[in-house]
Amino acid sequence: MRVPRWGLLALAAGLSTVLLLGSPRAAVAGNKVDDLSSALLNDPSFKVRTQAALLLGKLGEKAGVEPLIKGLADENKTVRAMAAQSLGKLGGDAAMVALKNLLQRESDTFVRSQAEKALAAIVPVKPPQPDQKIDAKDRKVYLKFGPFTGGSKAADANLLGLLRNSLRQSLEKLPNITVVEGTEEKSMGKGGRPAFLVDGNVLKLQDTETGSALETSCEVKVMVARWPSRSVILWTSAGAAVQGGKRDRDKQNARHDCIEASAGQLGDSLVGYFKSQGG
Question: If both were cysteines, with which of 21, 52, 56, 92 could 8 make a disulfide (CB 3.0 to 4.6 Å apart)?
Answer without folding.
Answer: 21
